[in-house]
Amino acid sequence: MPFSKRIYFYSLYLGLVFSLFPFLHHWQDYHFQIVKFQQVENQTSDEREKKIAALHHFLEERNSPLAPYAPQFVEAADEYHLPWTLLPAIAGKESSFGKHVPYVRGRNSYNPFGWGVTKGQVIVFNSWSEAIWTVGAGLRRSYLNHGLIHLASIERRYNPISYHSNHNWRRGVEYLSWLLEEKLRFEQSLSYRISDDSVFDPQAVDVLPWVL
Description:
- About 55% of the residues lie in helices and about 0% in strands.
- The protein is mainly alpha-helical.
- It has one domain: Lysozyme, CATH 1.10.530.
- A two-stranded antiparallel ribbon has the order 1-2.
- The longest helix has 23 residues, at about 5-25.
């Protein structure tokens, strides 16, 4: 091959390498941010009941007023094709699972999700049930249906302050979702020990069973 052609192809190779360098340099950041949504089909009633039981026990152990609403969390997730852990994880991050919600003129807002809560403004629901179904529908309609299918992109709209600073919101939601999955695994196997066999790894993109 003529020397000039070798120089040409070598320059192309270097151009490709340098164009990929920013991505490779920040690989861990990309790896951490991209949470894949996976389609879950034909969920059996037994699988649904196991999720409800695990979620109820999880919330009950934390003295959450949301514990009796575990069935509605799972049903709303099924209805709107959300990860079954997403709504309770957001509630955990925003309000310690409903234990610290805003009050408006002495009235409980029943808003454990921080949904529409800004300075001087609080969306008030009539019940925990209304909040679960309304926010579930809102996540599907205003987020997933608009292509916001990664937790990083959800965070950008849901909590822009966290998105533009330390990603504390996203990390908290990821961690609580993982805890819920571990609770389900624990209850499915008496021999399973979360403290011995499981370590939270935020860089494992398949930790969370996201669904479309």
